[in-house]
Each structure stands twice: as C-alpha cells, then as structure tokens.
Amino acid sequence: MSKVKSIxxxxxxxxxxxxxxxxxxxxxxxxxxxxxxxxxxxxTVTVPACCLSVIQGIFPKTAVDVPLKNTAFASAAxxxxxxxxxxxxxxxxxxxxxxxxxxxxxxIGIQALSGAVERNEDIIYLVYDNQAYMNTGIQRSGxxxxxxxxxxxxxxxxxxxxxxxxxxxxxxxxxxxxxxxxYLMDFYSKFQKAKERKGSRxxxxxxxxxxxxxxxxxxxxxxxxxxxxxxAWILWEFEDGVFQFTGFSKMIAEGKAKKKPVxxxxxxxxxxxxxxxxxxxxxxxxxxINENWEKYLKIAEIYKKK
Length: 306
Fold this sequence. Notes:
Blueprint: H1 27-39, E1 43-47, H2 51-55, E2 68-70, H3 76-89, E3 95-101, H4 103-107, H5 110-118, E4 124-129, H6 164-171, E5 175-179, H7 184-196, E6 201-206, H8 210-213, H9 220-229, E7 236-239, E8 242-245, H10 247-253, H11 263-266, H12 273-276, H13 279-302
Parallel strand pairs: 1-2, 1-3, 3-4, 4-6, 5-6
Antiparallel strand pairs: 5-7, 7-8
C-alpha cells in the first residue's frame, strides 16, 4: 500500500465487511476497519473476549476478511507472539496484530502484554480503549476515567485511570502511540509507521462508545475530537527512546493552540452526569487534565531527541 497522506489516498479495499454487529457510532469498528486497510491482506489477527469477538460474527460466518483467531481474555499478546513465531519458523513475513479492549489490556491481559513487550516480540498490539468493560455490561476498568458512571460505579469512579502508555514505555516497548479515528490522518501516520517497524509496537486508541458513554451515536467523531482538543486525550508517540506530541496535541504543547474547557467534552456524555452537576467537580476535573499535561510535558523533556 502506498503512503496515505490525505483522505483521497485511503485504500478502497475493505477487510471489515458489511454485516458486522457493532453498535451504531462504534469508534472501535472504525479503528479496526482502517487498521486492516493499512495492514492489508497479509495480516493475521488475534482477539480476546471483547466487543470485537462478538461483532465479528458467529461461527461459521465472519465479517473479518483476514485470518482471525479468538483467544482467552488474558492471552491476546501471548497468542499473537505464538502466531508470529509459527510464521517465522515457516519463513513467512506476516503482519500479526492483537486487537483487544481495555479490560483485556489494562487489567486482565496486562501480564501477557507486559511479557511480550519485555521480550520485544515482533507484533502490533492495538487496544481500543472504550474505558470500561462494555461487552459484559459497562463495568469499570483500569482505563475508566475519574468520575465516570459505569454499572459498578453508579456515582462515578473515584480512582484515576491507569497510564498504559507510560507503563509500556517502562516495560521496554520500542514503539508506543496514542490515536483516535477522529483524527484519521494522525491515525494512518502512526499505523503505517507501526507496520514498517519490527519489534513490539503498542497503539492505544481512544474509542468512544455510545451506549457505554451515554451519548447520541451521531456524536462519535465530535467527542473524539473534543477529547483531544480539551486535553482529556493526548496524541503522542514514543519511538526508539524519543517522545513527541503529534497533531492538535503538538499545537497545544507548543503554545500554538489552547485547550478547550473540559466541560465541553464532559457535558455531551451521560456517564459524567455527576461531574457536570457541580462547578467544583468540573474545576477539579480540569485540574486533573492540567496535571496530566504537566506530567507529559516533563516526559517529553526527558525523552526528547538528542
């Protein structure tokens, strides 16, 4: 596939076919669709228990037009590592990608992912981060942000979310990046880079979920953009020891753009209903965003290009 530099360059070939069972407005389906366009036919996917394992279709039919192996909740990275080793023994160079939700990554699957990254397994790992266990009833996960409603945090989560990206850097990943389909060219740029590299590559995708986040499905792209524009989701990449902000987040970091008030992001989502009731809680949420930004500005300074 030639480099995608604009919307008109996106390949027409589809590998996530019509008939999948994703909810209307599902950002995960958008991410999977475009990832497979980038990786192409020479790709094998492994998927643990998650939304994707359901929407792909019921045996013997599937909507995914490349080889795909379902695996246990905890073992997506281990399965991908084994598949890649099998291809290597056969002398085949195949793109192997694990695609998992945040429950199967931040929590249940983090041991297998940590091990694969530490061994520098030659795989891509995509976590579509919809910030809760959506497939099993919208329970809170390690990725659920502070204040968010879930069925197990009815008054809002009281803990902060895990920082998976920095965990992966600390574990030794050669390439780590954050993306969202709302900024599609940034998405393509990072996955094209991930495709060309060798070794462990982890991409964390913000994946808005209409039923779990409690918003109208028509707002999926807008909510993804607002997450970045308010600083609630930071676009960055870490490559061979160098950290850099990308896209709109780079403009914020360089002082060329200001973060929008986080209230504009929160008020579109019913999961933050307890936050938006209180001016004090909104201000505290804004403080959390600003503190996280300060942390990443320091990270960028530590891991800057020499």
